Amino acid sequence: MPLLMESGGEAAETAYGSHTLQYLKDNEYNNDHEAVQGVQKHEKFGERGAWVPVSNYADALGMTTDQKDALSTKVALAYNSGKDMVEDLEKVK
């Protein structure tokens, strides 16, 4: 299970990063409301992408709703920790 979560998280992080970087490159000097909404949209894409493979795996195992809720909390914490770490690294560049 940890390997699955790591692989799923890495795939989601890669997709999230690629989409966000491309969007930012395309709108490099554009800080208007539409540009901010675009970044937020890509963040939601990354968040969903981090959970879907884990949810599918949990369903395949027959996890209960309570077990999936607990797993969801762990995935959210791991995702947000990674996101915070990337943001912190970007601040020091």
Please describe what this structure looks like.
There is one protein chain. With 93 residues, the protein is mainly α. The protein contains three helices and no strands. The chain has helices at 2-26, 33-61, 65-91. The mean pLDDT is 75.
Percent of residues in helices: over 70%
| Record field, number of beta strands | 0
Distance between the termini: 34 Å
Shape: elongated
Strand content: under 5%
Largest sheet: none
Are there runs of 5+ residues with pLDDT below 50, and where?
none
Return the string of H and E elements: HHH
Using only C-alpha atoms, the radius of gyration works out to 15 Å
Note the total helix count: 3
Short description:
The protein is an all-alpha fold and 93 residues long.
